[in-house]
Write a structure and sequence with these properties.
The protein has 163 residues and is an all-alpha fold. It is 64% helix and 0% strand. It folds into three domains: 32 residues; 34 residues, no CATH class; 73 residues, Cytochrome Bc1 Complex, Chain D, domain 2. α4 crosses α6 and α5 packs antiparallel against α6. The N and C termini lie far apart (108 Å). The structure holds heme C (HEC).
């Protein structure tokens, strides 16, 4: 290779390098414009999250303030849990469980409004029917299969069936 060829090669090579640098800069700008820029430091939840992450696991409380906080915590721990209001709604109990068997009369389950239902009511009375459901009757599992149902809820469901 002589000098002429060398310098021709160097010129071409430099041209290629410069072209690549320009392409890189162009790509950087294109990429930056493709996604709307957002300033992550402006995001308020970031700060809150960071605070939460670095918060101490426990705290030592001393003196009067500490004693008061301790008493408060103990009172909260021993306080009776708020009674959850129990919903007694025969239609929803029936619709959520009893219906699966009783709408179609599965395994001889009395269908509401049918003669069989009326006959059972005449035979046992509402209380007797409620008792059957609570204890289960042949194919019907106790409480229709949901042991969480209270007597009142079952009573309401039976009354709903007899409407
Ligand atoms: C797995 C199906 C099934 C489910 C669920 C079910 N039952 Fe029954 N139920 C039956 C069958 C079967 C009978 C008839 C039993 C028999 O006479 O041998 C029956 C009978 C009854 C009777 C008549 C009882 C008697 O003494 O004659 C009542 C009332 C009744 N079911 C109410 C309910 C209620 C209320 C629920 C929901 C809480 C419920 N059932 C859920 C299958 C079911």
């Amino acid at each position: 290779m002589d000098r002429k060829e060398d310098s021709a090669f160097l010129r071409k090579f430099t041209g290629v390098i410069v072209a690549f640098i320009i392409l890189t800069v162009v790509l950087i700008f294109v990429a930056r414009n493709m996604q709307p820029e957002f300033d992550s430091d402006d995001n308020p939840s970031r700060g809150a999250l960071a605070e939460k992450r670095i918060a101490p696991v426990g705290a030592v409380r001393t003196g009067e303030e500490g004693a008061a906080a301790l008493a408060e915590a103990q009172a909260a721990a021993t306080a009776a849990p708020a009674a959850t209001e129990e919903v007694v709604d025969g239609a929803s109990v029936y619709g959520g469980l009893c219906k699966t068997c009783h709408d179609a009369g599965v395994a001889g389950a009395p269908v509401p409004g049918s003669e069989l239902m009326a006959a059972r009511e005449a035979e046992k009375g509402v209380d007797g029917l409620v008792l059957s459901v609570i204890n289960g009757l042949n194919v019907m599992p106790p409480r229709g299969g949901n042991m969480a149902l209270t007597d009142e809820q079952i009573q309401a469901a039976v009354e709903f069936m007899l409407q």
